[in-house]
Amino acid sequence: MLMAGLAAAGAAGTLAWQQPWNKWGADVATAVGQRKAMTLPDASELVLNTDSAADIAFTQAARRIDLRSGEILVTTRPDPAPVARPLLVGTTQGDVLALGTRFSVREMEGRVRVAVFRDAVEIRPARGAARRLVAGHQAEFAAEGVAPAVPTDDSAAIWEQGMLLAQDMPLAQVLAEMARYRRGVLRCDPRVSGIRVSGAISLADTDAGLALLARTLPVRLVRRTPWWVMVEPWG
């Protein structure tokens, strides 16, 4: 059940842009709306979220996953090599060192978000001081440094199950997340962007998710084309 209450207006809207160029030549990639799970050579598990791309390089010195775009979930396993190698996730802003852990890494506009669900990681910004991040917390970082950590929980990785769990989330943010899983444009009218939403929404069928929002909130869906949807106030 979705619950909503009015709040102050937020962002003017959301726009879904797809940029396939950053996937060309990637070792692994997913299309918009697709998720992919795989087992790495050391038995660690890697899950790619929608519209993501990564390169994988396991050498004698290190185990490395370079995230080109999108989001990944990593569950590490002990290294079977005679000499244990570090497992690193490379990003546009720096590296994330796994410390026997389960964690997610998401490339965002000019920053990277890391969430830790088990054990810990060490965030290593390209030009800033390293910082340890422990389970139950997430933090964003850029090349210059790491922002303060905030609490998180396993719901931050529920996308692995094809779901979005909104907890008192502004409608504009809900739509921004849904837009990652569909092609085309999804916009939110500023007059309804601050409506608070709580509940579980399927990401496997975003049209059904939008229809659910329209049934439970004071909003309507305006479709200019099958690929262009505006969420507006009802009436």
State the gist of this model.
This is Iron dicitrate transport regulator FecR. This protein is mainly beta.
Q: What is the subunit arrangement here?
A: single chain
Class by helix and strand content? mainly beta
Total of domains: 2
| The first-level CATH class name of the largest domain | Mainly Beta
GO molecular function: sigma factor antagonist activity
Protein name: Iron dicitrate transport regulator FecR
Pfam family, one: FecR
Domain FecR protein: 27-122
Q: Would you write up a description of this structure?
A:
- This is Iron dicitrate transport regulator FecR.
- It comes from Paracoccus yeei.
- GO terms for molecular function: sigma factor antagonist activity.
- Residues 27-122 form the FecR protein domain.
- InterPro entries: FecR (IPR006860), Ferrdict_sens_TM (IPR012373).
- With 235 residues, the protein is mainly β.
- The protein has 2 domains: 25-154, Jelly Rolls (Sandwich); 162-233, Phage tail protein beta-alpha-beta fold, CATH 3.55.50.
- Helices cover 9% and strands 47% of the residues.
- It contains 2 helices and 19 strands.
- It has helices at residues 171-179, 206-216; strands spanning 3-5, 28-29, 36-39, 45-48, 53-58, 63-69, 71-75, 87-90, 94-108, 111-125, 131-134, 137-142, 145-146, 150-151, 163-170, 185-188, 196-202, 219-225, 228-233.
- Strands 2, 3, 4, 5, 6, 7, 8, 9, 10, 11, 12, 13 and 14 form a 13-stranded mixed sheet that branches. A 3-stranded antiparallel sheet has the order 1-17-15.
- A hairpin with a 3-residue loop joins strand 8 (87-90) and strand 9 (94-108).
- The radius of gyration is 19 Å and the shape is elongated.
- The two termini are 23 Å apart.
